[in-house]
Design goal:
This protein is of the alpha/beta class and 477 residues long. The protein has 13 helices and 21 strands. The chain is globular, with a radius of gyration of 25 Å. The structure holds pyridoxal-5'-phosphate.
Length: 477
C-alpha cells in the first residue's frame, strides 16, 4: 500500500562532514562493532563555526558581549574544551557541570552558574572559585550570602528575573524574581557595601519558547531596571538574555508546511496516518471535526535562525530613536547570552543498528533498533527529520513506510512517532543515521533503564586519527 500513499518527506540540512561520513559505511559499521549501538558522533568544528557566527554578528553591532555555552544541551566535554580554547564562556547548571568545567581549565570569569537548585555544595564550589552566580529566589540568596560570609568573600551575583510583559500578558515562568520588585531587592540584599556578601553585577532572564518579540520586550524591561538601579548608585555590568535562539533543521519550507497539513488531514481521517497509531503530536480533533491544539514539537523550519534571530531581538526599538543594541551600547552594558541548541547546530549525529523487522497487531511494519527512546529525545513530541539509511547491499526499490522501535519493554518505546518511507525494508545489521542530534536529542533524557549502557560518544577528530592509524598499519604490513 505504501507506494500509493504520500508520506511527506522532511529532508534535513546536512553539513559536509556528515555527508562524507555517510559515504564510509565500513567505517561506521566498524565503529558500531567496537562501541556498540547507538553511537553518537560529535564534531566540535561545527560548534566553533556557530560561535564565530554569533561573535561576528555581535561585533558588527559593536556590542560588548560574552557568549556562554549552555552545556546542559550536550554532555560531552569536547564542546567545553572548544569553548575554553576559543575563550568564550560556559553556563553550568549543576555541581558536576561546574566541577568538570573547572577541571578542564575554563577560567572562572568565563563560567556562570544558573542551576535551578543551588545546594550548599554547589554554592561553595562557585564561591571558592569566584564564579558568577545567577540567583533565583530569596532562600537561595540567604544561603549564598551566609556562605559568602563564612568563606570571607565578596561574591559576584546576578539576578534571574520573571514577570515580563509581552503582547498584553505576563509571560509565565517558575523561575526568577518578580521584575517589579527586583530593584528594591537588589538594593537591600545584593549591595555588598561591606567587605563580605553578595555584590550585584547584572540581570538575567531565560524565556521559555522561541519568541523574538518576547525576548526584545524582556530586554527592554531589563535596560529600564538598570536605569533605575543607576539612579540609586548601582551599576549593571551585564544583561544576560539566556538561550532559545532558533535553529533551522530543514531544507525546504514547503515540506514543513505539507507535513503539518497532511498530519491534520490524517487526524481528521481524510488521509492515512503518517504517525504511529495516528498520533496527533499535539493536534487533536473535536466533535465538529475541527483540529484543536498545537503541534507539540520543536518548530523545525525557521527562516529567522542563529545570528539573524539574535539581530532581530537586538534591533527592536528601545524608544522612538534607538534600538535595544544602541541602548546597551550607550550605557556600556555587556550583552550576555547562553545559547545551547543553537551552538550545537550540525555538531552531532546518532547512528544505530537494525536488530529486526516485524509487524505489530495492526500490521504496521516495525524496524527494531539497538537503541532506546531516551537516546533521541527532547521536550519535542517527535524528532521530525528523515533519517539516512545505510544498507549493506543494493536492493531493488520496494518503498515501505516503517516505524522505528526501541529496546525498552514499553509499548511507547518508539524512536520516531512519524512513519518513515524507506526505499525498501532494511536488513538486520543495516544502519540508521539520525541527523543533527547534538542539541538535546542524544543526551538530555538519556537513561540506563534495563541497565543498558549509555551510548558511546566519539568525536570526528578521534575517528580521523583512528583512520590515519589504520592507514599507517596497512602501509607497514
Ligand atoms: C536551557 C537554558 C539555556 C539554553 O537554552 P537553548 O534553548 O538550548 O538555547 C540557557 N540558559 C538557561 C538558564 C537555560 O535553562
Amino acid at each position: 500500500m505504501s507506494g500509493t500513499i504520500t508520506y511527506p518527506p522532511l529532508t534535513p540540512i546536512m553539513s559536509e562532514w556528515v555527508s562524507s561520513l555517510i559515504q564510509r559505511p565500513d567505517m561506521l559499521r566498524a565503529l558500531i562493532r567496537t562501541k556498540g549501538s547507538p553511537v553518537n558522533i560529535l564534531n566540535p568544528d561545527s560548534f566553533v563555526k556557530n560561535y564565530r557566527k554569533f561573535n561576528l554578528q555581535l561585533t558588527a553591532m559593536s556590542l560588548r558581549h560574552q557568549v556562554f555555552f549552555a552545556r546542559k544541551a550536550n554532555k560531552d566535554s569536547c564542546f567545553i574544551e572548544a569553548a575554553r580554547d576559543l575563550g568564550f564562556g560556559v553556563d553550568t547548571a549543576s555541581y558536576r557541570e561546574l566541577q568538570q568545567s573547572l577541571d578542564l581549565g575554563c577560567p572562572p570569569h568565563q563560567l556562570v552558574v544558573t542551576a535551578a537548585v543551588k545546594n550548599e555544595r554547589l554554592l561553595r564550589l562557585a564561591i571558592r572559585n569566584n564564579v558568577l552566580l545567577i540567583l533565583d529566589n530569596p532562600d537561595e540568596v540567604r544561603l549564598a550570602d551566609s556562605i559568602a560570609r563564612s568563606e570571607k568573600r565578596k561574591v559576584r551575583a546576578g539576578l534571574r528575573l520573571q514577570g515580563f510583559k509581552a503582547g498584553g500578558h505576563t509571560l509565565h515562568t517558575r523561575f526568577g524574581f518578580p521584575v517589579d520588585q527586583a530593584g528594591e531587592f537588589i538594593l537591600r540584599n545584593l549591595n555588598a557595601s561591606g567587605k563580605y556578601g553578595l555584590a550585584f553585577e547584572g540581570l538575567h532572564f531565560h524565556l521559555d519558547g522561541y519568541s523574538i518579540t518576547e525576548r526584545s520586550a524582556a530586554l527592554k524591561t531589563c535596560i529600564e531596571l538598570a536605569d533605575s538601579l543607576k539612579e540609586n548608585g548601582i551599576a549593571t555590568r551585564f544583561i544576560d538574555i539566556g538561550g532559545g535562539i532558533l535553529i533551522n533543521y530543514l531544507k525546504d519550507h514547503g515540506q514543513w508546511e505539507c507535513f503539518k497539513t497532511t498530519l491534520q488531514e490524517a487526524i481528521r481521517g481524510n488521509h492515512p496516518p503518517i504517525t504511529y497509531r495516528n498520533n496527533g503530536l499535539g493536534y487533536s480533533m473535536n466533535d465538529h471535526h475541527e483540529i484543536t491544539g498545537a503541534l507539540a514539537t520543536y518548530p523545525f523550519y525557521n527562516t529567522l535562525n542563529g545570528p539573524l534571530y539574535l539581530k532581530n531581538v537586538l534591533e527592536a526599538p528601545f524608544n522612538a530613536n534607538i534600538t535595544l543594541a544602541e541602548a546597551l551600547n550607550h550605557r556600556e552594558i555587556e550583552l550576555r547570552l547562553e545559547p545551547g541548541r543553537s551552538l550545537l547546530d550540525q555538531a552531532g549525529i546518532t547512528v544505530a543498528r537494525v536488530a529486526y523487522r516485524k509487524k505489530d497487531t495492526d500490521g504496521t511494519p516495525l524496524v527494531g533498533l539497538e537503541m532506546n527512546m531516551s537516546q533521541l529525545r527532547s521536550s519535542s513530541a517527535d524528532f521530525l527529520l528523515d533519517p539516512v539509511m545505510i544498507c549493506g547491499t543494493e536492493r531493488p526499490s520496494r518503498p515501505i513506510a516503517v516505524n522505528f522501535t526501541g529496546e525498552y519493554c514499553l509499548e511507547r518505546d518508539l524512536i520516531l512517532q512519524r512513519k518513515i518511507l524507506l526505499d525498501h525494508l532494511p536488513d538486520v545489521g543495516d544502519l540508521v543515521v539520525f541527523i543533527n542530534t547534538a542539541g538535546y536529542m542524544m543526551h538530555f533524557f538519556e537513561s540506563q533503564a534495563h541497565l543498558f549502557d549509555l551510548a558511546a560518544n566519539v568525536t570526528l577528530p578521534e575517528i580521523e586519527r583512528r583512520l590515519a592509524d589504520q592507514f599507517h598499519l596497512q602501509k607497514e604490513s
